[in-house]
């Protein structure tokens, strides 16, 4: 096994300091994009590999999180859009006994898992988000779910702020249309 050079060690240290703190946020975003934990892990892994490979192009001290989100988003577009297909549907009643038994055996939960259960969206809302076209869904998720500013999203996606505002407006309107029936079922009335 070869020894790392001083430059390689410095690169690893800088990478760890700048990038590793954003791993949870990357995974959360990847999970929302892919709707599948395995695909999200693959996407994050692909993102980390690319980020490390091109870390020399990153300007230390700038917004590492935005840089990583841009890499993740581009990886998603390049790799996952081509292979996207409707996820397999499973009847909850068939898997719930197994799920509950496995869940009961676990003693440790991740931050993501507790966050997901605390702020769980029901199937209608998740399905409505999934129905949004890719560009609109991404902006709605980053702004309304993740809480990023227009400027941060523009940096992540490498598009003008006006485009972000337009996509957000159109995405919200599409989501509103998708959720109209959802709201009626739950007794909400429109203005």
TrEMBL record:
Annotated RNA polymerase sigma-70 region domain residues: 22-85
Domain RNA polymerase sigma factor 70 region 4 type: start-end pairs: 124-173
Keyword Transcription attributed: yes
Top-rank taxon: Bacteria
Keywords recorded for this protein, A-Z: Sigma factor, Transcription, Transcription regulation
Gene3D superfamilies linked: 1.10.1740.10, Winged helix-like DNA-binding domain superfamily/Winged helix DNA-binding domain
Record-linked SUPFAM superfamilies: Sigma2 domain of RNA polymerase sigma factors, Sigma3 and sigma4 domains of RNA polymerase sigma factors
InterPro entries documented for this protein: RNA_pol_sigma-70-like, RNA_pol_sigma-70_dom, RNA_pol_sigma70_r2, RNA_pol_sigma70_r4_t2, RNA_pol_sigma_r2, RNA_pol_sigma_r3/r4-like, WH-like_DNA-bd_sf
Gene Ontology biological process: DNA-templated transcription initiation
A GO molecular-function descriptor: DNA binding
Family as reported in the entry's similarity comment: Belongs to the sigma-70 factor family. ECF subfamily.
Protein name: RNA polymerase, sigma subunit, ECF family
Taxonomic lineage from the root: Bacteria, Pseudomonadati, Balneolota, Balneolia, Balneolales
């Amino acid at each position: 096994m070869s020894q790392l050079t001083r430059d390689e060690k410095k690169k690893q240290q800088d990478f760890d300091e700048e990038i590793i703190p954003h791993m949870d946020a990357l995974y959360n975003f990847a999970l929302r994009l892919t709707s599948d934990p395995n695909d999200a892990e693959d996407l994050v892994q692909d993102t980390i590999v690319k980020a490390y490979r091109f870390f020399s192009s990153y300007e230390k001290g700038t917004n590492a999180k935005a840089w990583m989100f841009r890499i993740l988003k581009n990886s998603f577009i390049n790799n996952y859009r081509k292979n996207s297909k409707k996820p397999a549907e499973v009847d909850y009643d068939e898997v719930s006994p197994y799920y509950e038994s496995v869940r009961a055996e676990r003693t440790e939960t991740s931050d993501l898992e507790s966050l997901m259960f605390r702020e769980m969206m029901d199937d209608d809302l998740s399905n409505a988000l999934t129905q949004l076209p890719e560009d609109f869904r991404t902006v709605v998720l980053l702004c309304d779910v993740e809480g990023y500013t227009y400027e941060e999203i523009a940096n992540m996606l490498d598009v003008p702020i006006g485009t972000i505002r337009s996509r957000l407006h159109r995405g919200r309107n599409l989501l509103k249309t998708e959720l109209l029936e959802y709201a009626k079922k739950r007794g909400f009335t429109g203005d």
